[in-house]
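Researcher: I'm preparing a figure for a lab meeting and need a structural model of a single chain. I don't have an experimental structure, so a prediction will have to do for now. The sequence is pasted below. Please return the structure as tokens so I can convert it later.
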Amino acid sequence: MATAYGPDTRAHQRSGTGPGGHPPVKHFLPAALRAPVEARTWRELGHVLLSLPISVVMFSFAVTMVSLGLGLLITFLGVPVLAAGLVVCRGFGAVERGRARGLLRLDVADPAPVRGKGGLMSWVGAVLRSGASWRHLLYAVLHMPWAVFAFVVTVVFWTYGWAAFTYPLWRWVFPAYVGVDGIQVYGDSTHQVYLDSSFEVAVTSAIGLALVLVTPWIIRGLVSVDRVMVLGLLGPSRLATRVSELESDRGVVVDTAAADLRRIERDLHDGAQARLVALAMDLGLAKEKLDHDPEAAARMVEEAHGEVKVALQELRDLARGIHPAVLTDRGLDAALSAIASRCTVPVTVTVDLETRPAQAIEGIAYFTVSELLQNISKHARATHATVDVWQTAQRLMLQVTDNGRGGADVTTGSGLAGLTERLDAVDGVLVVDSPQGGPTTVTAELPWRG
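Model: Understood. Here is the structure written out token by token.
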């Protein structure tokens, strides 16, 4: 059962805190003025400057090895040479992913390693069949022209901007060592134009300042292309990522199903089964007393009748916990109204659905709302709650809100974390907004699949 509203969760929520519980950094200058001196700008500048020599080496190696391998395909040597070239390209890709993590703060997962079944030729075949290997080769070929362009644009804007901005500080170099009054902007056989007056120096510095301020944003635009190339060509493929997600989701589903089966077994053993065993013993005693003490036997049968009613109610509750009949027969509106009526606080239910979603999605939505309302009953200290259900595009939306004390946190290993895993297993999303003092709003999004 979820305990997300308990007191222990409140320490994990701090009003006005940033990541890691630290207070957010307050800046006195706007982003446009901070950009030239920010650490991010210098990291991205370093990435652009390093890209040129690295990309030249990658491009030269890739073109050489591919040309050599293709040229030798008429012999046996072409295949291993081509495979060796692809392997080294994967090594270059590992370097590029490391640069992206360190300088661009871009966390890219490594692609699946190449696995042969045994033997050199099996490994060579696995390398040649690997789509990741060919994407690394494509990156080595495509990145070089882009790196040249990004390097030239960055160096031109960076050097011209800072040179013009600081021109008043170093203008003395021209008359002292060059024999002219300043930077020459025009000259022919009759006259020359130099930036030497105070007004011209000030205008030059102002233009330089504009270039200094705009250059970080140009660099960010350039490295955004690097980010796309690294993510698209050097990371795992979308298919491999999706397979990994499905394997993880399958594990969550299996664990959840096993936990539900254990819960049902425990409820049957400790509840209805124990009561039915006691009922059988009471009826056996009543049968023995039937001949010589009919009145005692009648009382025992009457008590057994009451036990039967209790056992039936427990079985009904257990069946409702597995899959309520009202949900199958009448849909979410009636089923959610039924569980809302059992909540300890008043609940307003609004269901706006023209059709019904898939049965599995209906069941997940029902149990999600059921657990959230149980949280409210046990932990929220609320006086009112609302449940809203609606459809948008091909998604089923749920929102449960209460005016309780807040402090719910999905990261504390509570029942909310379990709900998040269940929804994630069907490509759903759970978002919790629960500041200290409330209100708490939990929004769930599920695929429609109806």
